[in-house]
């Protein structure tokens, strides 16, 4: 662990980059290259293991990890990050009065809370975590008990948490603000290296498509499509999404990306695509019917057309 931290320290000093800090004006990320990122990941894993070992098995189980999401839930629900001046502080008395509780002392921003205040995507991520993912996660075991095979898109923890028979995106469609927030959260997802869009643009031989057509099925607000179009400007990229998602999406000037309203549960209307891209569609439960049309029903595509799947694989 010491050797890895030395690598990070040396790189930051050599490049005159700021060191990690909890201060509100601290760096958002360390701006380190892949080889140094590997050292950072090793340190994080080692310190987590050390933390677990030093606690011992009993204290490790006794920890109230479930309470950790209470704090971002409070920040999200009461919009606390927006109520604190970015470069200043507010008294707890004034802040408490603003949200209807009693307290004293002063409340400045930390580096993390400032991100919530400054960055709409970060705020969307926090909101989606505490209002969508947390309630659903609590219902995972119940959902597996009720639907062991989970064969349908509405047989999920999300369905139980929201007391609905509708699929995930149908629920979001009923609330545009909720849908917009989730879209922002998914956009934020791609800002970290682990889920960076470079894995899409660099991890697949897109050059073979040349000036062909790529359909990004369930491509949300187009982050992946825009990344592809920027690196491969000759591609014609079509993002297919539900009406409410398309309505909240914007095409970028000079990029060959178009949005098209299409329900993945319906037959594919475009029959001559060079690549049909499924990216993270499994994670929202939309994959079952969509794959049936492509794989089991055999949607006819031109010779040489490809089905590209980019998904998260859990290590068993």
Tell me which oligomeric state these chains represent. single chain
* Largest beta-sheet details: 5 strands, parallel
Number of helices: 15
Number of strands: 7
Strand percentage lies at 5-15%
Describe this structure in words.
The protein has about 325 residues and is α/β, with parallel strands linked by helices. The chain is about 45% helix and about 10% strand. It is built from 15 helices and seven strands. A five-stranded parallel β-sheet has the order 5-4-3-6-7. Strands 1-2 form a two-stranded antiparallel sheet. Strand 4, helix 14 and strand 5 form a beta-alpha-beta unit. Helix 6 packs across helix 7. The relative contact order is 0.07. This is O-methyltransferase C-terminal domain-containing protein. One of its GO terms (molecular function) is O-methyltransferase activity. It comes from Pseudopithomyces chartarum. Keywords: Methyltransferase, S-adenosyl-L-methionine, Transferase.
Main traits of this protein?
316 residues, alpha/beta, five-stranded parallel beta sheet, two-stranded antiparallel sheet, 15 helices, 7 strands, globular
Per-chain topology:
Blueprint: H1 2-14, H2 34-62, H3 70-77, H4 80-83, E1 89-91, H5 92-99, E2 106-108, H6 111-118, H7 120-137, H8 140-146, H9 157-161, H10 168-173, H11 176-189, H12 198-202, E3 213-217, H13 223-231, E4 236-241, H14 243-247, E5 257-261, E6 275-279, H15 287-296, E7 306-310
Parallel strand pairs: 3-4, 3-6, 4-5, 6-7
Antiparallel strand pairs: 1-2
Helix pairs in contact: 1-2, 3-7, 6-7, 7-11
